[in-house]
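Input sequence (95 aa), recorded before submission:
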Amino acid sequence: MSKPFDVEIDNSIAHIRFNRPEKRNSMNEDFWNLFPKEVEELDDSGEIRALIVSSTGPHFSSGIDLNMFNNDVVEDESENEPGRKAGYFRSIRLE
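Predicted structure, token format:
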């Protein structure tokens, strides 16, 4: 799995740069799983005084990558029940 961002540390300043410009730096499942861990590790290390978050390409981020909802997470029965499907997505939490 390749990270959807790059991390550099220079002179006690960490720089996280989103690196999916072809997808307008949308935040996919890898992002949601890795980004919080990366920030926590940087914080726990005690090596940095500041954190810069930026991106590559013309867009900072288009937000959540909706393609992560195209898998078989939602059961077929909800296909004709958009309210249940929407309720499911509001209730999930990524670990």
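Checked by second reader. Helices lie at 29-45, 82-91.
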